[in-house]
Amino acid sequence: MKKISDFIWPIIGLAAVIGSGYLLYKELAGISMAEIKGSFAAIPVHRFLFAALSTLVAYAALAWYDRIALLHLGVRHISWFFVSVCSFTTYALSHNIGASVFSGAVVRYRAYTAKGLSAAQVAVLVALCSFTFGLGTILLGGFVLTVLPDTLTRLNGYLPAILTDPATARILGCCLLAFVALYVAGSLLHLKPLTIRKFKLEYPRPRIMGRQLIAAPLELLGAAGIIYFALPEAGNPGFLVVLAVFLASFSAALVSNAPGGLGVFELVFVVAMPDIARPSVIAALLVFRLFYFWLPFLISVVVVLLYERNRLASALRDEPHDAAAPEPPLTAPGLDAPALERRIEKKPV
């Protein structure tokens, strides 16, 4: 069964890429490359700059994820610069490779164990970062579904009718916001962990929780901003709608397990943006891929090579590792940290 589970998710991801690619091809039939190039060239320079700034905001917030997790662990001896570079490299690689929890865990394991953290601490860090991202998605998803409950009607025919109904969407949005409110109350009131089957929700200290509620939405707002600024002003439905469509597309891409959400993300976004000419939507998605995926990936490869070269040089000189980090509170919401630790240790680095 273990061998089957090792292959089933890559197969599902490949099937998602092929299936979404076929559907996307049908959606874009009749559009020429010249039209897409023209739409790309029509994006004003200042909007490219705003998209680049949005990328910096998104990756800065991702670095804050790691910093928040380290504060939860009581680790303060690692510099902001190291944390930022490690986080950037982790997400740049995992966004493109897919399976972000475990591919990111391997990169962090390699980096943070060199700074004195144990495998258990890295497991907690990965779990908390993953939960912080999920918390931001739930918070913003609940907000847009409550404020704009008719947004999912853009996906009629692709989602069950019950989900595209505005009344149902608003109820779902309220439930998502209620989950966030429960998390906030649990942290402030120091409630006991909430256990639902295998899911165990640990309430962190209020200072940690407060940082999570700022960092997680900030990353998603920055990522959505890349596409918003790359879209033309004519027919642009506004940032809130773009954010709602982005959340739906990004969530579908994560669930599909496709590497980098390739095809799945584009399909959902194109279908949900009927107000804008298809070539302009594709051009905006290319800008998003360029800024959020491809350029960071190229930079991260260089960073990894330089880091490994420096580690090899240090090993040859027999330089000691950094001081060991303090013992962590081995709790993290949403994921089984000991199980994640075992998977990290078994992964080849």
Summarize the structure.
With 349 residues, the chain is mainly α.
Explain what you see.
By secondary structure, the protein is mainly α. Helices cover 72% and strands 2% of the residues. The chain contains 13 helices and two strands, in the order H-H-H-H-H-H-H-H-E-E-H-H-H-H-H. It has helices at residues 2-27, 33-41, 45-73, 80-97, 100-112, 119-147, 161-164, 166-189, 206-230, 239-256, 264-271, 278-316, 337-346, and strands spanning 194-196, 199-201. Strands 1-2 form a two-stranded antiparallel sheet. Strand 1 (194-196) and strand 2 form a beta hairpin. Helix 1 (2-27) runs parallel beside helix 11, helix 3 (45-73) crosses helix 4 (80-97) and helix 4 runs antiparallel to helix 5. The longest helix is centred in the last third of the chain and has 39 residues, at 278-316. The model has no long low-confidence stretch (mean pLDDT 83).
Core attributes:
349 residues; mainly alpha; two-stranded antiparallel sheet; 13 helices
Question: How large is the share of residues in beta strands?
Answer: under 5%
The quaternary structure here is single chain
Uncertain runs are none
Q: What characterizes the major β-sheet?
A: 2 strands, antiparallel
Head-to-tail CA distance between termini: 24 Å
Task: From the alpha carbons, calculate the radius of gyration and give it in angstroms.
Answer: 21 Å
* Strand arrangement, major sheet: 1-2
How many strands appear in the DSSP assignment? 2
SSE pattern: HHHHHHHHEEHHHHH
Total count of helical runs of at least 4 residues: 13
Class derived from helix and strand content: mainly alpha
Task: Assign an overall shape.
Answer: globular
Helicity, in percent? over 70%
The mean pLDDT is 83
